[in-house]
Amino acid sequence: MTYRSTVNHAQMAAMLRSARRPFVTTHFKPDGDALGSALALGRALRALGAEVDVAVAGPIDRSILGLAQPGEHRHADRGPVEPGPGCDLAVVVDTGAWSQLEHCRDWLRANASMVAGIDHHARGDLVAPARIVDVSCASCTQVLVPILDELGASLGPGTRRARHTVAEALFAGLATDTGWFRFSGADDRVFALAARLLACGVDKDALFRMVEQGDAPGRPLLTARALSSLRYACGGRVAVMRLARADFEATGTRVDDLAGLVNEPMSVAEVEVSVLLVESEPRLTKASFRSKPPAAPGGAFVDVNHLAARFEGGGHVHAAGARIAASLDEAADLAARACEDYLESGS
Ligand SMILES: [Mn+2]
Question: Is 70 exceeded by the pLDDT of residue 76?
């Protein structure tokens, strides 16, 4: 089954408009784009009169918790969060992977005809009769905008700065998924959308401070440990860092405190790929892969989606992840070898 759009924006908007009690969810452990997408859609549909149930599951980075207002969404750290009685549409945003939807998988499977998906990832296996997948979008919130436009939703007050608007949630997804407009996905359309959202009253300075300057005191200490673990592979083109559980204990940090750490070695000229390995269990290592865009237009680059797929993971061309069933040290060897293979064969 290919993972692609099955309806157009107008058809998706019509489905959303006719739902009285829509349920909106996203992948387990929502990031800024996932939470931003769910909140933006929830706010827009609520403003149109629907009784919206926004529900998310898994730990949420404290830097993005403030995107939501108290009581705006349901949140279960673990365990199921399923639609309540009367739900007539379930919308899944920013993922199409069953593996990331454990919290409501049983319900979605049993009610497949009521499921809609809105996503910007290249792969997915979610069964949804109505789906819009646009991999040309840098964030899922960007995919949402033409749908919200079809709905005639208001994005924000425009003339004054305002928090907790549809526009703010959309901007949060756009900003976080593009590393605040630095990553290669941040093209002319992204900047045009950012300009439009700013004109809707988004307070980007307040948002930046909340999202990017809210680290725990242990974060720089954890960064120091990750950097001191750094090893170069493939003649310096690949940087591999590792963090053991003990590193988190010693710095009083948690996995939530990792955001963006994988990008640290990207400041080095020669580095094309950065890999961060985090010990999750004694024989389970979480791997994050990042790559730089080509140095010149049309130049070579490493497709880390491809690289992560070697470990049954995936993601995007320049940002992907995988879980490797190996110890931290073994995973470091496996990841370095996969990078060598890739750089030698070019695929
Ligand atoms: Mn996303």
Answer: yes
Q: What is the CATH number of domain 9-212?
A: 3.90.1640.10
Distance 246 CA to ligand 1 centre (A): 30
Check pLDDT > 90 for residue 159: no
The pLDDT tens digits for 293-307 are 998 988 999 999 999
Å from CA of 316 to ligand 1 middle: 10
Distance 25 CA to ligand 1 centre (A): 13
Comma-separated ranges of CATH 3.10.310.30 domains in the chain: 219-345
Alpha-carbon span 213 to 78, nearest angstrom? 27
Q: Please tell me the CATH code under which domain 219-345 is placed.
A: 3.10.310.30
142 CA distance to ligand 1 middle (Å): 9
Give the closest residue to 154 by CA, choosing from 146, 166, 164.
Answer: 166
**Is the CB of residue 75 less than 8 Å from the CB of residue 30?**
no
Two structure tokens written together for 307: 């690289």
SS3 state of residue 106: helix
d(CA 119, CA 59): 21
Q: How much of the chain exceeds pLDDT 70, in percent? A: 99
Full-model pTM = 0.83
- DSSP letter for each residue of 229-273: T-EEEGGGTEEEEEE-HHHHHHHT--GGGGTTGGGGGGGSTT--E
